[in-house]
Amino acid sequence: MTFNPFEDNFQGLGDKATSGEKNLQGVLAWLERDECPLGDAARRTYAQAVRKAARLIGRTPDQIPACTTQFQSIFPNKEYVRSWGKSFCAAKRWKRNVSAAINGATGTIAAQKERRSRRDDWAWLLAVLREIAEKGRPSPFELHPKQLICIQSCADTARKLEIRVSDIDPDVAFCLYRAAPTKAAKNAVVAALDLVDQSRVITDRRIQRILPAEIIGFVRPERAEKVAIPASLMQELDTWVDLASRGRWSITDNAFTGGVSPTPYLNAAKKIITTAERADALKLTELNTIAAAFDERVLVTVVQMLRDLNKNDGVGAITPRTARGYFECLIPLLERNGEDTSSVRMILDTDRWLKTGSRSRTEMSPHVRSFCRSVVTDMNARIRFLSLHIQLRKKAILHLKAAQMTTGREAEQQLEKARRFGTCAAFAALETDAIPARVSSVLKTTFRGSAAWLHLGQRKTDDGRITIPSAYVKNRKTLHATISASSRLRGLETLRWYKKVIRPLFVCWFSLRTDPVFSPRFDPPFIVYQRS
C-alpha cells in the first residue's frame, strides 16, 4: 500500500467538527443539503471551488480530508500557479471559497457564531466600548470603532479556553497570547489586554464589576533570546572583520583595494557566538579572546542546536541554507586572521543538514520563484507589480484629502498614513522604473548638493538619473541608471510628486520633534524612513 500523506498525516477534526464532514466529499454533500444556509449562487461557487481543489490535488474528494490547514499548506497564499486561477487575485478568491466551504461544513463557522452570540462579560465589555466609540459618549480616553476588532478577536480566543475578563492576570494573559492561532490574533490579544487596562478608568458599573482585580500589564514576550556580546570581545571581532573584508594593500594607491562588505562576516560570527552562548557551549563573560568561540567543540554544539531549532521551529531558528552561508563566511574570516579552518571545512563537508542548505543555495526559494514566475508569465501580475507606485500614490492622495476635511488627532493620523503610502510609492518608483537597488542604499539616497545621488531634472521633459557610489554597492561597482520622462511606468512623475507633496510633510514633522537631531536644520535623505 502506497503512502497517502492526506490520510496518514491527517489528525482529524476532533471535537470541533459538529457536522462530521471529514473529507471534501462530505463538504460537497453539505452544500446540497437543506440545512446549508447559503444561497444557490454561493453553493454553486463553493462546489466548483471544492471540485477544482480535488482535481488539482489529483485525488477524489472522498480521499482528501476537510482540513483548511492542510489545504493552505498545499496552496500557500504567498505562491501562485496559473492553474489555480487566471490571476493571483482569482487564485486567492478560489482558495477563500474552498476554505469557507470547509469551515462551513465542519461547523467551524457555526461554532464561531455561537461564541460571538454569547451574553457574557466579554459581550458587556464590547457593548460599553461600542457606545463610547460610536455614540460619542464621554470617556477618559479616546477610542476608535476599529479598535473593537481586537476585542472581538481576543474574546473569541478567550471563549475557546473558557476565560472570563475577570480571570485574566499576567499568567492567564500569557496563556491567552500563546493560544492565539495566528500572528494577527496574537497582536489582537496584546491590543485587547491593553484596552482592558485602559477601561479601568471608565466609571460604568457594567465594566467595573467584570474587570480583573489588578492591572494586567501584559508585555509581549521577546521573539528571541537576546545575548549581549561584551564590549571587549566585540571590539576584537570588529578588528577580525576588518582584516577579512578590507582587501589588499596597494603600494601605489597607498590604500586598501578590492575589499568586500564586512556585514556578512559580522552577521555570521555574531550568530554563531550568540548561539554558542545560548547552548551553554561557552561563557562570553569568561572569554579573553574571540578565537575561543570558533573551537571545534563549540562549532559542533552550534550546528546541533541550530538543527534542533530548525526541526522544532524554536526561537531563533534559521534555515539550513542560511546556516550554511554563515559557516562558509567563517572560512575567510578565520583564514585571514591566522586561525585554523579545518574544523569548519569538515563540518561543511560531512553534516547532512548543512548539505541540504548547499543544494537550496543554488536555487531560488519556492515562494520567490513562484512570485518571479508570475511576474514574468502573467501579464496582469506584471502590470500590477510595475504600476504599484501609482496605486500607492493614489492611496496617499486620498489620505491627504481626508486630512484636509478633519482636524486634531484624526487629521494627524491621516497625514501619517499619507506619509507612509507616499514614501512606499517613491520607493516602488525607484525600484521598478530606475534600478533594483538594495533597501539600505535607497534609504541613503541624497538629492541635494554637488554629490547628490538622485537628479529629477528641471523641466517636465528632462530625464532623471540616479547614481549609487561604489562604497554602497555589494560588488563595489558604481551603479548608474536613467529614469526616463517618457516611460510608460510614470516613475519619474511619482518621484517628482513625492518631492513636492510628501517630503515637505516629513520636514515639518521632524521640526516638531524634541530630539535635537530632528531640528529644522536637519535635512533627511530623499526617501525618508519614519521610525514609529
What does the model show?
This protein is mainly alpha-helical and 532 residues long. The chain is 55% helix and 3% strand. It contains 23 helices and five strands. A three-stranded antiparallel beta sheet has the order 3-4-5, with no helix packed on it. A two-stranded antiparallel sheet has the order 1-2. Helix 8 packs across helix 10. It is globular, with a radius of gyration of 28 Å. The protein starts with a helix and ends in a 21-residue tail after the last helix.
Please summarize what this structure is.
With about 525 residues, this protein is mainly α.
Q: Biggest β-sheet, characterized?
A: 3 strands, antiparallel
Low-confidence stretches: 1-20, 510-522
Radius of gyration: 28 Å
Distance between the termini: 57 Å
Order of helices and strands: HHHHHHHHHHHHEEHHHHHHHHHHEEEH
Protein name: Core-binding (CB) domain-containing protein
Please describe the structure with a list of short key phrases separated by commas or semicolons:
mainly alpha, 3-stranded antiparallel sheet, two-stranded antiparallel sheet, 23 helices, 5 strands, 3% strand, globular, disordered N terminus, Core-binding (CB) domain-containing protein
Q: How do the strands and helices of this protein lay out in sequence?
A:
Elements: H1 5-8, H2 24-32, H3 40-57, H4 68-74, H5 88-105, H6 108-116, H7 121-134, H8 148-160, H9 170-179, H10 183-198, H11 205-208, H12 231-245, E1 248-250, E2 255-257, H13 263-278, H14 296-312, H15 320-335, H16 342-350, H17 352-361, H18 366-377, H19 379-386, H20 388-404, H21 408-433, H22 439-442, E3 454-455, E4 464-468, E5 479-483, H23 491-511
Antiparallel strand pairs: 1-2, 3-4, 4-5
Helix pairs in contact: 2-3, 2-5, 3-5, 7-8, 8-10, 9-10, 12-13, 12-15, 13-15, 15-17, 18-19, 20-21, 21-23
